């Protein structure tokens, strides 16, 4: 028996097509359709698979297969997660720009004659990743495995959440460090463009926090998009992930331009001479934005439903179906 979809639609006029060759012979029972909608959401997309005119010439622009609809639904459900991970890479952009600029105004001497190149401070990204990975493997994974039964420790969404939280802490820490740097510059009456008598190693915590956040976010994003992208769109998974990196840098540029336009006339936050600016306010602004973004992410992750089964204690995926469990996972 064919089942119609939509109010007032005749029961025999609506058909879901699995393929254009068998477009008029494949039907879906109402109880199966209800389960499908509950599992995938975005039920408005079902209309793309409704054959309202069986006599019309088949066209993929007019009628989609149910498989196509399901794949588009999966991508739509991932978009909130995708959007809320962009801000991490906006924070990352500050470490390669303003934090390096801060380093040029600080005491970079080691010993009587050697000076650390300001740009080389990004090596602490690598160092923090190398330190974070074994800590995660040796400490976090065993503890998380006992708490949630996941053999991999944290799930992709949990790892991304940790990375976003670290970005908030990093920006707050960067603001506090900049407040101290400006205070020292003022107390020591440092001239324009002069070097503040404050060790450059004060910047290490913010580099370390963002680097550790990258270890969680990068791997979490890659795992999430590879796992959740539909089989027919696997090539799109890496593109979704990499687009968050590029958009993060674009957002950073737009944010800097907006801040400079608003504050540039009287008391610029971002000045050519950082000793005369208020970079700490810019860092606080980023911390607030990242915190708001984290809260939105937690809501999105809380209600996201994985399409695959949850791995059991033995690493199998024949356990509980995660599609029916809205939770932060």
UniProtKB/TrEMBL annotation:
Origin, by domain of life? Eukaryota
- GO annotation, cellular component aspect: membrane
Instruction: List, alphabetically, the Pfam families matched.
Output: PTR2
Q: Where are the bilayer-spanning segments?
A: 75-93, 114-136, 156-176, 240-262, 282-300
Cell compartment(s), UniProt: Membrane
InterPro entries xrefs: MFS_trans_sf (IPR036259), POT_fam (IPR000109)
Q: How does it sit in the membrane?
A: Multi-pass membrane protein
One term of GO molecular function: transmembrane transporter activity
Main localisation: membrane
Q: Which UniProt keywords apply?
A: Membrane, Transmembrane, Transmembrane helix
What family does the entry list? Belongs to the major facilitator superfamily. Proton-dependent oligopeptide transporter (POT/PTR) (TC 2.A.17) family.
What is the name attached to this protein's record?
Answer: Protein NRT1/ PTR FAMILY 6.3-like
Q: What is the lineage of its organism?
A: Eukaryota, Viridiplantae, Streptophyta, Embryophyta, Tracheophyta
